[in-house]
UniProtKB/TrEMBL annotation:
Domain of life: Bacteria
Ranges of residues in domain Beta-lactamase-related: 7-350
Keyword field contains Hydrolase: yes
InterPro entries membership: Beta-lactam-related, Beta-lactam/transpept-like, Diverse_Enzym_Activities
Record has Calcium as a keyword: no
Keywords: Hydrolase
Protein name: Serine hydrolase
Ranges that cross the membrane: none
Originating organism: Kribbella yunnanensis
Length: 364
């Protein structure tokens, strides 16, 4: 506990976040501590504070997908147009910076696995100054937007997606992050259950994650912290976008949670409770080729690591972070997992480094 508190104190002492919650699990027990305040000049931060976990939603969505694979509802190599006919016959632009009308046919339909591995054919492009496809896709949401910034419901969202050409042939390149928005629509259609309810039935209720959801649960509203962009208010807890159901529940980054709740998910992964062994192993194994890891998007987001199904895989650890200041890594050989919860956009490199460096020492 002393090391855990020391880490939380160091994160706050850096001056880049007003407060932090740090948690650790060994798969059986969990320990959670807090330091600092819930905002600049705010009240003392509680260890059960509720945070917007943004892209830490992706690993949960990946587990849901693999559970449906395990039960035979989905197959990893199934073409996604089976459930998303709006995406049948999409075309591909000849150049990333080329006009939307200059296209060639897609050589194949993206598969369920292409969504999990973000090889859909559409995502962030860092190798060009202008990308008309991304500009046209702006209303679909990028990064950690507020839920209200996407006004389309899932059916209209996927229809709009289907009107766009892809940036490249499916399966070829790793690009963050729209694949998981598509994946969320597919999960709801394939299961016949609305995405928030699917999360609740298959993960939140079984694991006791009662403070998690696409909307802050009513009993936890007083524990939601405000979100900041630097020192500027991004989302006020009192009037938060996450207090009302979103038009588009986003599997790429729409959830709120607590350190304790997320550690329950982390522990279940460590213990092999969520998936059969082959799928659990595949989820946390690098699925990318050397060429895909060398791509501009991978170099920006993966920092030399690889990507499994919904998680970064780097050295002895796997996990992922959220653009609003949250981070999780598990070290399976050591049997531990740790989470960091802050709420400042973008995540502080110094904060991330302190978390990674310290948690790695706990495994040696």
């Amino acid at each position: 506990m002393a090391d855990l508190q020391g880490l939380a104190d160091r994160v706050v002492a850096s001056g880049e976040v007003p407060g932090a919650v740090v948690g650790l699990t060994d798969g059986r027990s969990q320990w959670v501590v807090a330091a600092g305040t819930d905002g600049p000049g705010g009240a003392e931060l509680a260890s059960d504070a509720v945070f917007r976990i943004s892209s830490m939603t992706k690993p949960l969505a990946a587990v849901l997908t693999l559970q449906l694979v395990e039960t035979g509802v989905l197959g990893l190599q199934d073409p996604i147009e089976r459930w998303l006919p709006e995406l049948a016959g999409q075309r591909v632009v000849r150049r990333l910076d080329g006009p939307l009308q200059d296209t060639v046919p897609a050589e194949q339909s993206p598969t369920v696995e292409d969504l999990l591995t973000m090889r859909l054919g559409l995502g962030f492009a860092f190798e060009v100054e202008s990308c008309p496809v991304l500009e046209a896709a702006g209303e679909l949401g990028f990064g950690p937007p507020k839920p209200s910034s996407v006004t389309l419901d899932p059916d209209r969202w996927i229809a709009r997606f289907g009107e766009l050409p892809l940036m490249e042939q499916p399966g070829r390149h790793w690009r963050y992050e729209l694949a998981y928005g598509v994946l969320g629509v597919l999960l709801a259609r394939a299961s016949g259950v609305a995405l928030p309810e699917l999360f609740r039935q298959r993960l939140f209720e079984p694991l006791g994650m009662h403070d998690s959801g696409f909307v802050v649960p009513s009993h936890a509203r007083r524990r939601l912290v405000s979100g900041f962009a630097g020192t500027e208010l991004f989302d006020d807890a009192a009037t938060s976008d996450w207090l009302t159901p979103p038009a588009f529940p986003d599997a790429a980054g729409g959830l709120v949670s607590t350190a304790g709740d997320y550690l329950r998910f982390v522990a279940a992964l460590l213990n092999g409770e969520l998936l059969r062994p082959d799928l659990a192993s595949a989820m946390v194994s690098d699925q990318l080729t050397a060429e895909q890891r060398a791509g501009a998007s991978a170099q920006t987001f993966l920092d030399g690591g690889g990507w499994g199904y919904g998680v970064q895989v780097v050295g002895p650890r796997y996990g992922w972070g959220g653009g609003l200041g949250t981070l999780w890594y598990s070290y399976p050989a050591a049997g531990i997992g740790a989470v960091l919860m802050t709420q400042v956009l973008p995540p502080s490199p110094a904060t991330v480094a302190a978390f990674v460096d310290t948690t790695e020492t706990w495994t040696s």
